[in-house]
Design brief:
Layout (H helix, E strand, L loop, with lengths): L2 H29 L9 H18 L1 H9 L5 H20 L2 H4 L3 H26 L9 H30 L16 H35 L5
């Protein structure tokens, strides 16, 4: 069994344990139990939802490999698993989003770069396929990887907005810890910061991918 497969099983186990923990917290909050006093009720809702989403996301790379007959590197699998661990287990369950001010910003930068890498790998593998043979240029592959990452990161912000509208989870941080509800420009600050950081992370990896591809093509055969 490969390293990332073992890591996936461990992380899935952590998701299940964290989900059970959140359910106990939700029930305790509803019944006035002492367990609920450890965290706000809304935190338990967030943990339960993110554990479900994380469990689904955990199998996406393998599903893409099977569906499109492609293969991601072991390092990409490992990085993806570590990202989910940092975002959900550390960020939400362990409360790193509150303990470390820039934790969310760092993860959004990594998210943009990681999704750009996935997009780059997918289109590059398809482009090199003898069966499909698209013949795409390095520039277009890099541009696609950038757009791929920005699209998915934007979809996540839309999901956060929808969840805030229907479940009032404050995922877009428009309510301060002291209960102050932000309005106007200030209410948009967290979302726009996330999108800007996502774009910068995606742009960096897309440019690096383009430069690496051009450098490889510039090497003499056997070099």
């Amino acid at each position: 069994m490969k390293t990332y497969e073992v890591m996936s099983k461990i992380l899935l186990g952590l998701f299940i344990i964290s989900f059970m923990y959140s359910i106990v917290g939700i029930i305790s909050s509803a019944t006035g139990g002492t367990f609920a006093y450890h965290r706000p009720y809304i935190d338990y809702i967030k943990i339960s939802l993110q554990c479900i989403l994380g469990s689904v996301a955990l199998f996406l790379p393998s599903a893409l490999e099977h569906k499109f007959k492609i293969s991601f590197s072991n390092s990409m699998h490992v990085f993806f698993i570590l990202f989910l661990y940092a975002a959900i287990i550390l960020g939400e369950v362990r409360g790193y989003y509150r303990k470390f001010y820039h934790w969310d910003t760092i993860l959004h930068a990594l998210s943009g770069g990681m999704l750009s890498s996935f997009g780059f790998c997918i289109i590059d593998i398809i482009n090199k396929s003898e069966r499909i043979n698209l013949g795409l240029s390095d520039w277009f592959i890099s541009f696609f990887s950038f757009c791929f990452a920005v699209m998915l990161d934007t979809l996540w912000e839309i999901i956060e907005f929808i969840m805030d509208v229907f479940m009032d989870l404050n995922m877009q941080q428009y309510i301060l810890p002291d209960g102050t509800v932000l309005t106007g420009h200030y209410a948009l600050a967290d979302t726009m910061k996330d999108l800007i950081v996502d774009v910068l992370g995606a742009l960096l990896i897309s440019v690096l991918g383009y430069l690496i591809a051009k450098r490889r093509k510039g090497k003499p055969a056997g070099g």
